[in-house]
What does this fold into?
Amino acid sequence: MIETERLLLRPMTQDDLEDFYDIFNSDNVGKFVNKMSHEAVEKYFERKKNRPINPYSFAVVLKENNKMIGTCGIVYDNDNFCGEISYVFNDRYWNKGYCTEAGKAVVEYTFENSKMHRLEADCAENNLASAKVLLEKLKMNFEGKIKNYCKSYDGNIIGFNFYAITRDEYEAKK
Ligand SMILES: CC(C)(COP(=O)(O)OP(=O)(O)OC[C@H]1O[C@@H](n2cnc3c(N)ncnc32)[C@H](O)[C@@H]1OP(=O)(O)O)[C@@H](O)C(=O)NCCC(=O)NCCS
It folds into this structure.
């Protein structure tokens, strides 16, 4: 469990299903990650029951009312000691600094509690909020772009940008 000023980051439980659905059944969220029906969420939670727990994957919960407003975590590559950060927040809570608060906590937790030496992330070039979080808030470096990578929600073919922070850079910037 990680505690920040306004948030608790804890493992997701089966009780989070409706809040998870509330996050993912959104047209705004669906522009950048897969929108999910209630049935798809139910199947996802069913599959999760049999999966090993990822210790770096968190439900992001508002301390004030215990509502899960987002997910934030690292998928880690144990063999190469690196991980990929990703996050999604309920669009009714966007632009209040919650992703920044959770993301910083997860980056710090990961570098302080694991042997990972590199965290990376990617996002669509038109995902300006996510790019700002990665570059300005989490202090990752832009490492490059894959041009004409995939189809965007608006039908345009867009590129994907790649970001990363190494352990050395994290130590130097903290
Ligand atoms: C990306 C996402 C998680 C950000 O969550 P959030 O809680 O709103 O993020 P924060 O409030 O911490 O920071 C967002 C920053 O981007 C800025 N921003 C938002 N929309 C923007 C836009 N269209 N252009 C430029 N900046 C923008 C905000 O103003 C804020 O910066 P500020 O605090 O300096 O004002 C959220 O938009 C989301 O869930 N998107 C859909 C899922 C997704 O894209 N996940 C990442 C896949 S790579």
